[in-house]
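Project standup — Tuesday

K.O.: blocked on the structure for the chain from last sprint. Re-posting the sequence here as requested.
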Amino acid sequence: EAAFDPTVASPPTAAAARTVSPGEVVIADHVQSETIARVRMGTGAGALNAPTIVPGSGELPPDRVAQGLAATQMVPAITLQRRGLLIGGAVLAGVLGVGIMAAIFWPRGDQAVTPPPRLDAGRARSPDAAVVKIKQPPPKAKLTAEEVERLLEWAKRAAEGGRYISPKGDNALELLDRVEGDHPEHPQAIALRQQLCAKLKLAAAKATRKRQYAVAEHRLQAWMTLDPLSAKPKQQLFAIYLAQARLALGKNKLKPAGDYVKSALALSPQSPGAIELRGDIAAKKRKWALAVKDYETVLEADVGKAFKKRVQQKLKAVRKKVR
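H.V.: unblocked you, prediction finished:
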């Protein structure tokens, strides 16, 4: 005997051809097609849990009736499944609708977003409201008369000790600058500066006569620092450098001689005497091309006849060496 399958329709028979009212499930036996049982489904609450079996034209065995009752349990399951599909579709449609609205009305990155209005937009603002005021330190008080007197006395003692421009914090130059910084036209400070310059001038001349060139150079540098507008200390310092260069060249000390010439040219780049001396040093080093160039530069300058004649002789001798 074949297994009973309620999902497969049985062949139409006289018993199965009877009118079935709505809400009824017809269960047919595949073997005894004339035997039909009808399960009437109620319409009230809990009706699905208590179906009514209406016998057909014949009696079904008990196992067939049990199978028919089991088939009736498929009805509520199918109904719930359909309801779940409807609810899921509605939720999905709502999510898609929200996404589309957000894509249309939500501002993109290239669109300007209008900021919310300020709470104080309607208030009147002062013109200086946006200016950030930085508190400035109080102005430094100028030196008093007692402080000026003390600094000037300190500068005198520093100069007597030879501390004209060094060491830092304890030299005459810095002390005078402090006084004149607060009092630019202070007569005592101006007079003291002039006295110190005259003293340095005499000391440099004395050291030069004794050929103490290092001492003379130090005094002239201090004088030039105290009085940067004066040309006299520069001229004397230039002469000191040339004298030291000639002395070193006479002793065949070419490196120190070249350094002194370089210092002299830093003070006076167009000096014919310094350029001639640089040519002499190049000739000693057998750098004939450099020597010829320096001698020719000197001859192009406006120099005396004796000076020019001496340089021409040097140039002639160097050219013979080149040949």
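K.O.: great, moving the ticket to review. The mean pLDDT is 77. DSSP finds eleven helices and three strands in the chain.
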